[in-house]
Design a protein that fits this description.
The complex is a heterodimer of chains A (331) and B (134). By secondary structure, chain A is mostly helical. Chain A has 14 helices and two strands; from the N terminus they run ααααααααααβαβααα. In chain A, strands 1-2 form a two-stranded antiparallel ribbon. In chain B, α2 packs across α7 and α4 packs antiparallel against α5. The longest helix of chain B has 20 residues. Classes of the chains: A mainly alpha (331), B mainly alpha (134). Chains A and B meet through α5, α6, α12 and α14 of A and α1, α2, α5, α6 and α7 of B.
Chain lengths: 331, 134
């Protein structure tokens, strides 16, 4: 770099200084410098240092000395050296930019790896509620793109439950989580979304503090189905994190005002009728009981309305079916 | 803005309305808003009654929604076309079930089981719409 320094200094000097800069210097310039300035500013350290050393060498001569005009060869040689210097400088700058880009990409890759990010993951299409967000589903562009769905005439292959669809779950993207606890409706929506997603619990452990209170519910919501005996045996006066304290009744507690209420309280609370299920599953099943349903045998009534006045056996059958269909009881 | 009655709507307009109602149902379920769900359910019944009074080919337009990203839209489309495209509708329900897209997965499982037991009587929906109007 030494050769570059000389050429560079010459170039800077030619740009910053007039050829007759000497005539503008005070004759007593040394009076304004600190003693020992030569040690601090050795020749070649800067344009100013060179100026002072030149002046010192020329001391004794007349100040108004005009520098000799360079010859054409000198000018051409200097120009060529300067161009070479510029070329090498540009090359070095390019290499530096390349290194910086590499470093940035490495950092991004490290972050993406840490966050389980996959750029090939498809997104939901624009215009839908989940528009632009990532999806785990098979097929790009947010569509199912499953060849078996297209035609009613030619079924391609049979489903193999639990095998080929094991990876197909609801979108696993982390929704935008407010740091402060949101209003109840918004909070409820977020907790449902998290519970029904495939976002790992370990990711949620780093979520805002208010979410932490719901992690047990979210975790239990994803528990695998159990046998009826397991669900009945889990009933206990002790509370289980993520599980409903007031246990679920297969035959719902019948309102006292219901006409023809045929079941005594003891039967409703009997061991065969009470099961311990995840809190959020309990909410979900209760919601299902209250919503009108087109399916057989409800035919536009809500299951609760349909069951009004029905026998214990029918209520128990529908109760067990609801548990199976909601993924709580093994089918 | 002039409101068009269901009878004057084109198939495209009916399908758009179908999607809108199904998405509103989805929101109501997510917010545990049963009153809103019941309102939307009645709108859907009206809409389906209109579809059922038209030629069957028009209802086939709902099959385009089998690939919709929203599970409630897919489930509703499959349910209301199960008599004209039983195999395709069944596959849509099976996929909702396998993907564990709750709470739609619960109803989809019931649809599959009911389809095994016999065809669904769609005239029940028209009857319900008539009852709602009176």
């Amino acid at each position: 770099m030494a050769e570059f320094s000389d050429i560079c200094l010459k170039h800077v000097r030619s740009r910053k200084l007039r050829p007759n800069w000497r005539i503008f210097m005070r004759h007593d310039w040394e009076r304004f410098l600190k003693p020992g300035w030569e040690r601090i500013m050795p020749p070649g350290s800067s344009v100013a240092a060179d100026m002072y050393h030149q002046l010192k060498a020329e001391r004794g001569r007349r100040w108004q000395v005009r520098a000799p005009e360079p010859t054409r060869e000198e000018i051409a040689a200097e120009k060529a050296a300067y161009e070479e210097y510029q070329r090498k400088l540009a090359e070095l700058r390019w290499m530096l930019a390349d290194l910086k880009l590499d470093l940035t990409l490495q950092r991004l890759r490290a972050k993406a790896y840490k966050a389980n990010f996959n750029p090939a993951q498809p997104r939901w299409p624009a215009g839908s509620r989940e528009g632009g967000q990532w999806t785990d589903g098979g097929g790009g562009g947010g569509r199912i793109n499953d060849p078996r769905v297209i035609s009613d005439v030619e079924p391609v292959e049979d489903l193999k439950p639990g095998a080929q669809y094991a990876a197909l779950k609801r979108p696993g993207n982390l929704p935008k989580l407010p740091k402060q606890e949101p209003p109840p409706n918004e909070k409820n929506r977020i907790v449902w979304e998290l519970a029904r997603s495939s976002i790992p619990i370990r990711v949620l452990l780093e979520a805002p503090k208010w979410i932490q209170g719901y992690i047990a519910e979210i975790k239990s919501y994803r528990d695998p189905p159990k046998t009826l005996e397991e669900l009945q045996e889990a009933v206990s006066p002790k509370s289980t994190p993520g599980y409903q304290d007031q246990d679920h009744h297969i035959v719902n507690q019948v309102a006292p005002e219901e006409p023809g209420r045929p079941f005594p309280e003891e039967r409703i609370d009997s061991a065969e009728n009470v099961v311990r299920i995840p809190t959020r599953k309990h909410y979900e099943i209760n919601g299902w009981y209250s919503q009108p349903n087109d399916e057989k045998p409800f035919y536009s009534l809500s299951p609760r309305d349909y069951l009004r006045g029905k026998e214990w056996s029918e209520r128990y059958r529908i109760g067990l079916e609801a548990l199976k269909e909601h993924g709580v009881l093994k089918r | 803005m002039k409101r068009i009655s269901l009878q004057d709507m084109t198939v495209d307009q009916l399908v758009k309305r179908f999607v809108g109602i199904a998405l509103a149902e989805y929101d109501a379920i997510e917010l545990d808003d049963n009153a809103k769900f019941r309102r939307m359910f009645d709108h859907m019944t009206e809409l389906m009654a209109e579809f059922l009074t038209r030629p069957v080919q028009q209802r086939r337009a709902l099959m385009a929604l089998y690939e919709h990203p929203n599970p409630q839209v897919r489930y509703r489309a499959a349910f209301f076309t199960q008599d004209i495209a039983p195999a395709a509708a069944r596959r849509v329900c099976e996929i909702i079930s396998e993907r564990n897209e709750y709470p739609q997965a619960a109803n989809a499982r019931r649809t599959i089981r009911n389809m095994d037991e016999g065809p669904y009587d769609m005239s029940r929906i028209v009857e319900r719409a008539k009852r709602n109007r009176t």
